[in-house]
């Protein structure tokens, strides 16, 4: 445990006012783990000489090899300042974009964060991401500008240039924070205005509304980073130094006789020291004077580096040591590496741990200072507002704010992730160090055994021969024992925080699932019910026992009997109850916490199988454990039976596969090539051909139907395709006919539907409950969000062909919430609206639709869902397609039961249903028929007619899709690359080779670094980071984040149709078609037919004459 004893930490845990829960956030390679090492060394856990080299919190082997953090690790530190003692629960988090989910798990458990920015690179993409995550979780950040030594050693800036550079970095960070604050204020202002409009206040007339009024009124003084506020530290963690303005203000107030309050305000800013008057004056830049910060702070540091590193002037070093009053060991003075001496001097003069920890204790809040806004946000899941929660649930807000550990305080815990630990690392399995008495006792026992063994030597042979069978049995048992140990090699521990109550070992609590409703739980269970009672079944509620409680100490765990509120802890024994995250509580009124905000979506898929088929059970178990251990990884079993692993990126994938091989499955596995996701869509007919010549109307039709003409008319009796793309298809039993047209959706609509998938899913659940006649308590905020979605769709779907389209939406797909639309364009078929929840319960149509259509309504929707789930090009989901059902004829129920009557007189039996050729429908006769045959009707909608209609609708959608210009959509990464000017051309070369497209580039002011922003297809991204590092000798490093879906412009089935295209491309037109290459690759992987030319019987070409 180092310098701080376990008893001391137990004492500190009971004082929540002096607890600080914080995490370290930054871009990759900005020095998080090095700074964490310095803080850990200050507590005596590791040597200060090893800080930055040991990387104590990177406990995995691959973390040490790669030099990046891959998981969040927590450690508890003790810090004393004056008469106050603090307990710091520090969480080190990864900076690589592939592991941003680990950042989300860390941020949720903290009250504050240390944001680190590299002094050379400045604000990078991941810096903006972590600042946004901290903002979304309502935690307070402080800033550390790290690696200032690079400004001296690498960039060789003067102290004045470095000051200007540091000012710009502060401006960049504050600009990101300001943008987040502005968006929040404007959202709140918009909501306020909307409420005023709803209340009937008149905002029109002569009043001119100004959006900036909200910004003027809001106080943002506490948000920004400024050295004079004490929330900024300048540091070089690798050299062991760091300081805040307060430190130098205290030093110079004693030397110069100026009050420290004055120095605090003037050390950072446009102030200088007038040497004649000995006064601090304003306007240093205008008068060409050195700012106070440069003169009193930076010049001293630059002088030290010049003496120790640049010149190695021993006399000057001795003078510096004398003036600072520092004693350095002789071996450090004589060391060949000047950095060793520099570290020895700086770690005594300006220790970075003291500067950072004092800032943390002063500026970051304790668990008692949690804001009411954050509590309400945590307790409001989904679209439910805090005000709509039950009264008992709202009363728990005081328990959060008080952070009490009393006997009456309800236990509330949030588990942010589950992590696997080797059983040997558990405190119960660890060998306890022996004292002198125990060593003496064991020595005596060993001597006695040795003496007995020597005396019984003559009988030993006979005993062995007599026990041969038993010995064999023992051998069998001993071989079985390691297998049992192997099964229990990994144990899961929950990474959690206590928000209220005292948690004790062996305590039982409720596990609240993400869909748990406290109102339902309180109504179903009696008032005094606890987790120890025999609880009846309640949806999304279970009970568990916290078998072990652990103090997290980086690579080690310490077992505790009880832990009070406000602390971060590890909980053992929850692996059967908690998958990834969960809310634990002793109160049924507690709601589940809002889900974590994950910045990176998993996009990279691989299929995994064991090399030896008999290892399949081990693989299944291993993948289940991996799914539980990684907050971002997903494990799926596809329809084909493949076990698929979905990860956030290439580095994340490699780590997951290593874990699967070496920790969770312990078997050899075969991994497929990455499964690249694509989408299929249709576009408007092209206006120009491939050589940019304008197409006539006849040529456009020829281009669309260039490949599909033969297939469309192969069965003209059952299906027909018009030249404008309308597909008419009849079911095999001739009882139903559907006419479908495929229309491309505007891109804005597709993006909106994709963003609103969760809301559309909620809308579908509401509609389902209304159809079944169930009562459902719909939150007002949810209804507002649905109304807003409808309004946006109406704005975006403008024009003649989209007239009244939003009201006519039949369904979304695939899976009923995807970015495709089924449109009801059937004349006079007034089905129940998709938006019926906005109109109230009386939204059932006054004129009920025809019964056969009504009964078979779901069959049309099911066919649409199947069609959008797998498109005709390569069985990938559709995106951005609207299928408009323009005609639907269904023969009457009577004729379905008497098929012979249909053959005798087909004219006299008109279709009950709606057709574009019919002028009127006898609805009364239809209703009478329906009333007489209700039993037959129920069988009818689930009989063979329904199945044939589903299949026909699916086929009609596929044919309508193929009747339009088809395109493939590729998943795209946003690629941020930092590179120097020398390697810029090589970076562009690698991007061009991999179908990348540069959006913009800009030079970082004050450096020779360029920031290139590009988009890159996911299909071309594998090996991209390695290739770009090799080509640029490590001078460029990319960050890939999934961005959007993009249409590949080339037609996968293109063949030359115009004379100009024949002249330009030739009759074969066998140039590389990127879209067709992707389509064929996907079809080949799925085992579908691929049209390609193969040489089967080749003969070697021979020359008849001899070579001369």
Portion in strands = 15-25%
Helix content: 40-55%
The main sheet comes to: 8 strands, antiparallel
Q: Please tell me the CATH architecture of the largest domain by its name.
A: 3-Layer(aba) Sandwich
Overall pLDDT confidence: 81
Strand and helix map with partners:
Blueprint: H1 6-13, E1 19-26, H2 32-42, H3 61-66, E2 73-81, E3 84-92, H4 100-108, E4 112-118, H5 125-136, E5 140-146, H6 149-153, H7 159-198, H8 213-217, E6 232-236, E7 241-243, H9 245-256, H10 260-266, E8 271-274, E9 279-282, H11 284-287, H12 292-310, H13 314-324, H14 330-333, H15 338-349, H16 352-363, H17 372-379, H18 391-402, E10 412-422, H19 436-455, H20 457-466, H21 468-487, E11 490-500, E12 503-504, E13 508-512, H22 518-524, E14 541-545, E15 548-553, E16 556-560, E17 562-563, E18 568-572, E19 582-585, E20 604-610, H23 616-629, E21 634-637, E22 643-647, H24 650-664, E23 669-671, E24 678-682, H25 697-704, H26 709-712, E25 719-721, E26 727-730, E27 736-744, H27 747-755, H28 757-771, H29 780-796, E28 809-813, E29 820-824, H30 836-839, H31 851-855, H32 857-869, E30 881-890, H33 893-897, H34 899-904, H35 923-932, H36 934-941, H37 944-962, E31 966-980, H38 984-993, E32 997-1003, E33 1009-1017, H39 1024-1031, E34 1037-1047, H40 1059-1065, H41 1074-1086
Keywords: GTP-binding, Hydrolase, Nucleotide-binding, Ribosome biogenesis
GO biological process, one term: cytosolic ribosome assembly
Protein name: Elongation factor-like 1
């Amino acid at each position: 445990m180092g310098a701080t004893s376990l008893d001391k930490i137990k004492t500190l845990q009971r004082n929540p006012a002096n607890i600080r829960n914080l995490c370290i956030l930054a871009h990759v390679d900005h020095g998080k783990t090095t700074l964490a090492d310095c803080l850990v060394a200050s507590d005596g856990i590791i040597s200060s000489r090893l800080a930055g080299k040991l990387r104590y919190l990177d406990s995995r082997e691959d973390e040490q090899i790669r030099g990046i953090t891959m998981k969040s690790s927590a450690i508890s530190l003790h810090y004393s300042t004056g008469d106050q003692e603090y307990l710091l629960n520090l969480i080190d988090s990864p900076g690589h974009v592939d592991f941003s989910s680990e950042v989300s798990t860390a941020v949720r458990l903290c009250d504050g964060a240390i944001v680190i920015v590299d002094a050379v690179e400045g604000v990078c993409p991941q810096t903006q991401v972590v600042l946004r995550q901290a903002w979304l979780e309502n935690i307070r950040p402080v800033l550390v500008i790290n690696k200032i030594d690079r400004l001296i050693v690498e960039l060789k800036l003067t102290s004045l240039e470095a000051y200007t550079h540091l000012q710009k970095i502060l401006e960049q960070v504050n600009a990101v924070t300001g943008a987040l604050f502005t968006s929040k204020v404007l959202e709140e202002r918009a909501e306020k205005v909307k409420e005023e409009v709803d209340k009937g206040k008149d905002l029109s007339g002569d009043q001119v509304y100004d959006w900036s009024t909200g910004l003027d009124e809001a106080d943002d003084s506490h948000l920004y980073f400024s050295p004079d506020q004490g929330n900024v530290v300048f540091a070089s963690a690798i050299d062991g130094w760091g300081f805040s303005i307060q430190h130098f203000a205290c030093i110079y107030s004693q030397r110069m006789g100026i009050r420290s309050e004055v120095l605090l305000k003037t050390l950072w800013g446009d102030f200088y020291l007038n040497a004649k008057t000995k006064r601090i004056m304003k306007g240093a830049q205008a008068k060409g004077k050195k700012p106070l910060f440069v003169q009193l702070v930076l010049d001293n540091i630059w002088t030290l580096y010049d003496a120790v590193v640049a010149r190695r002037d021993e006399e000057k070093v001795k003078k510096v040591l004398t003036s600072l009053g520092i004693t350095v060991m002789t071996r450090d003075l004589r060391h060949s590496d000047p950095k060793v001496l520099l570290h020895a001097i700086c770690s005594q003069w300006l220790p970075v741990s003291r500067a950072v920890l004092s800032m943390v204790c002063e500026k970051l809040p304790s668990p008692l200072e949690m804001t009411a806004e954050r509590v309400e946000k945590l307790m409001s899941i989904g679209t439910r507002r805090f005000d709509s929660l039950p009264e008992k649930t709202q009363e728990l807000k005081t328990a959060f704010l008080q952070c009490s550990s009393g006997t009456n305080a309800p236990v509330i815990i949030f588990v942010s992730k589950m992590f696997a630990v080797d059983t040997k690392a558990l405190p119960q399995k660890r060998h306890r160090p022996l004292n002198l008495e125990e060593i003496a006792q064991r020595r005596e026992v060993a001597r006695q055994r040795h003496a007995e063994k020597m005396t019984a030597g003559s009988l030993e042979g006979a005993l062995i021969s007599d026990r041969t069978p038993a010995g064999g049995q023992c051998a069998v048992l001993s071989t079985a024992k390691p297998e049992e140990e192997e099964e229990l090699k990994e144990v899961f521990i929950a990474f959690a925080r206590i928000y209220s109550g005292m948690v004790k070992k062996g305590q039982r609590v409720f596990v609240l699932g993400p869909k748990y409703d406290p109102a339902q739980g309180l109504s179903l269970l009696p008032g005094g019910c606890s987790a120890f009672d025999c609880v009846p079944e309640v949806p999304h509620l279970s009970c568990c026992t916290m078998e072990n409680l652990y103090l997290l100490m980086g690579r080690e765990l310490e077992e505790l009997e009880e832990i009070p509120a406000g602390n971060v802890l590890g909980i053992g024994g929850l692996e059967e109850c908690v998958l990834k995250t969960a809310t634990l509580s002793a109160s049924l009124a507690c709601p589940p916490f809002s889900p974590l905000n994950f910045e990176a979506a998993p996009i990279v898929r691989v299929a995994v199988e064991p090399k030896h088929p008999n290892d399949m059970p081990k693989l299944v178990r291993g993948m289940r454990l991996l799914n539980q251990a990684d907050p971002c990884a997903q494990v799926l079993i596809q329809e084909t039976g493949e076990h698929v692993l979905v990860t956030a990126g290439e580095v994340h994938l490699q780590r997951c596969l290593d874990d699967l091989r070496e920790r969770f499955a312990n078997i050899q596995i075969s991994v497929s090539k990455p499964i690249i996701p694509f989408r299929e869509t249709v576009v408007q007919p092209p206006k120009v051909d491939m050589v940019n010549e304008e197409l006539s109307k006849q040529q456009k039709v020829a281009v669309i139907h260039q490949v599909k003409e033969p297939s469309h008319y192969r069965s003209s009796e059952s299906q027909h395709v018009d030249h404008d793309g309308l597909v008419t298809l009849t079911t095999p039993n001739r009882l139903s006919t559907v006419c479908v047209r495929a229309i491309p959706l505007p891109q804005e609509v597709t993006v909106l539907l994709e963003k609103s998938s969760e809301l559309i899913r909620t809308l579908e659940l509401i509609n389902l409950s209304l159809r079944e006649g169930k009562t459902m308590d719909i939150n007002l905020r949810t209804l507002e969000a649905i109304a807003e979605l409808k309004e946006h769709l109406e704005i975006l779907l403008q024009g003649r062909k989209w007239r009244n389209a939003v009201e006519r939406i039949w369904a979304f797909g695939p899976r009923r919430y995807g970015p495709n639309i089924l449109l009801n364009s059937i004349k006079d078929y007034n089905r129940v609206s998709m938006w019926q929840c906005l109109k109230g319960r009386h939204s059932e149509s006054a004129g009920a639709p025809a019964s056969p259509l009504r009964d078979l309504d779901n069959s049309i929707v099911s066919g649409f869902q199947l069609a959008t789930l797998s498109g005709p090009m390569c069985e990938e989901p559709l995106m951005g397609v609207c299928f408009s059902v323009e005609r639907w004829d269904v023969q009457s129920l009577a004729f379905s039961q008497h098929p012979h009557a249909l053959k005798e007189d087909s004219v006299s039996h008109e279709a009950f249903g709606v057709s574009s050729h019919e002028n009127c429908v006898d609805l009364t006769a239809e209703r009478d028929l329906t009333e007489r045959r209700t039993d037959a009707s129920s069988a009818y909608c689930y009989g063979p007619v329904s199945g044939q209609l589903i299949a026909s609708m699916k086929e009609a959608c596929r044919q309508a899709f193929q009747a339009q210009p088809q395109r493939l959509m590729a998943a795209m990464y946003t690629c941020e690359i930092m590179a120097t000017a020398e390697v810029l051309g090589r970076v562009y070369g690698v991007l061009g080779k991999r179908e990348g497209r540069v959006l913009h580039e800009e030079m970082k002011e004050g450096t020779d670094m360029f920031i290139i922003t590009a988009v890159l297809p996911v299909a071309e991204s594998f090996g991209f980071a390695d290739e770009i590092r090799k080509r640029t000798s490590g001078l460029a490093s990319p960050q890939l984040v999934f961005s959007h879906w993009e249409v590949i412009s080339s037609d996968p089935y293109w063949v030359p149709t115009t004379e100009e295209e024949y002249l330009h491309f030739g009759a074969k037109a066998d140039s590389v078609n990127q879209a067709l290459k992707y389509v064929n690759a996907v079809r080949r992987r799925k085992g579908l037919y691929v049209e390609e030319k193969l040489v089967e019987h080749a003969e070697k070409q021979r020359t008849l004459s001899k070579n001369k």
